[in-house]
C-alpha cells in the first residue's frame, strides 16, 4: 500500500470480556503529524459511526506515532470554505455519539487537534502532550462551542490566556485543571476505556445525550427524555439488583 492510499484512520477491536467491545481508532498520518483536512475529518467521522454500528461500547482515540494531531493541515484545503463546517460536523458527531469516547493524547494537540481532544468525553495525557490554540497567530476565528467548552474545562483565566496569547497548556496543567483525567500511557487509557465499557450502556447513552446539551448539535428535550426512560426501564436495572444480591459484578447487556 502506497503512502497515497494508506487508510487515514486505523481501527482495532479489543474485547476485555465477552460481549464488551472497545474500538480503538488511530489517526494514521504521522508523516504530516496527523494533521486534519477534509478527507481526514470525514474518515474520523466515518470510523466513529462505524464503531457504534458495530456495537462498540467505548471508542479509544489517539494519534499514530508521537503526535496526537498538529491541527489543520495548513498546506492543504483548510482555507477552502468547506473545511471548518466539516470539522464542526465531525466534532458534533463525536459529542453526540451514543457511546463515550476516551482520547489518549499521546503527544501535542494543536488547534483543531485540541478541538478533537475536547470533543472526546475523557482525556488521558502522555508526558509529551500539550495543547495550543494559535488562532490569534493565524488570524482566524473560533466557534462559540469550542470557546465555551475550553472555558468550562480549564476556567476563564486559562482559556483567555490560551486564546489571547497562544500560551500552551502542559500535560501537568491539563491534569491539575481537570481538562484531563490523568497522565499516562496507552495502558492507562485502555484501562479507563475498559472501566467505562463495564458500565451500563443505556446509562452511558443518556449521559451522552445530557452532556451534548452544550455541543455543536444538542439533542432535543424529547430525545433526552427517551434516553432517560430507556435506562430506567431496561433489563439492566434488574441485572444490577441481582448482581448486588449475589455479590458479583453486573453483566450489562444494553437492553
UniProtKB/TrEMBL annotation:
Pfam families reported for this sequence: ECH_1
Enzymatic class: lyase
Sequence ranges of Basic and acidic residues compositional bias: 233-249
Protein name, as recorded: Enoyl-CoA hydratase
Function: Could possibly oxidize fatty acids using specific components.
Residue span of region Disordered: 230-255
EC number, UniProt record: 4.2.1.17
Family in the record: Belongs to the enoyl-CoA hydratase/isomerase family.
InterPro entries recorded: ClpP/crotonase-like_dom_sf, Enoyl-CoA_hyd/isom_CS, Enoyl-CoA_hydra/iso
Keywords: Fatty acid metabolism, Lipid metabolism, Lyase
Record keyword Lyase present: yes
Catalysed reactions, as listed in the record: a (3S)-3-hydroxyacyl-CoA = a (2E)-enoyl-CoA + H2O; a 4-saturated-(3S)-3-hydroxyacyl-CoA = a (3E)-enoyl-CoA + H2O
Lyase found in the keyword field: yes
GO biological process: fatty acid beta-oxidation
Amino acid at each position: 500500500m502506497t503512502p497515497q492510499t494508506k487508510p487515514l484512520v486505523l481501527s482495532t477491536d479489543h474485547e476485555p470480556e465477552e460481549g464488551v467491545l472497545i474500538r480503538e481508532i488511530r489517526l494514521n498520518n504521522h508523516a504530516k503529524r496527523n494533521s486534519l483536512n477534509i478527507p481526514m475529518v470525514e474518515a474520523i467521522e466515518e470510523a466513529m459511526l462505524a464503531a457504534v454500528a458495530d456495537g462498540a461500547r467505548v471508542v479509544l482515540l489517539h494519534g499514530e506515532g508521537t503526535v496526537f494531531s498538529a491541527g489543520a493541515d495548513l498546506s492543504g484545503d483548510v482555507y477552502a470554505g468547506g473545511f471548518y463546517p466539516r470539522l464542526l460536523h465531525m466534532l458534533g458527531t463525536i459529542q453526540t455519539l451514543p457511546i463515550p469516547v476516551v482520547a489518549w493524547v499521546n503527544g501535542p494537540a494543536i488547534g483543531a487537534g485540541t478541538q478533537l481532544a475536547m470533543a472526546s468525553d475523557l482525556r488521558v495525557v502522555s508526558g509529551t502532550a500539550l495543547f495550543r490554540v494559535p488562532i490569534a497567530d493565524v488570524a482566524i476565528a473560533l466557534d462559540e462551542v469550542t470557546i465555551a467548552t475550553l472555558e468550562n474545562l480549564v476556567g476563564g483565566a486559562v482559556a483567555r490566556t490560551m486564546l489571547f496569547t497562544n500560551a500552551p497548556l502542559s500535560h501537568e496543567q491539563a491534569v491539575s485543571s481537570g481538562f484531563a483525567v490523568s497522565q499516562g500511557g496507552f495502558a492507562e487509557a485502555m484501562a479507563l476505556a475498559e472501566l467505562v465499557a463495564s458500565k451500563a450502556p443505556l446509562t452511558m447513552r443518556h449521559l451522552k445525550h445530557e452532556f451534548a446539551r452544550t455541543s455543536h448539535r444538542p439533542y432535543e428535550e424529547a430525545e433526552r427524555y427517551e434516553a432517560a426512560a430507556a435506562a430506567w426501564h431496561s433489563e439492566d436495572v434488574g441485572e444490577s439488583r441481582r448482581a448486588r444480591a449475589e455479590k458479583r459484578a453486573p453483566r450489562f447487556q444494553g437492553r
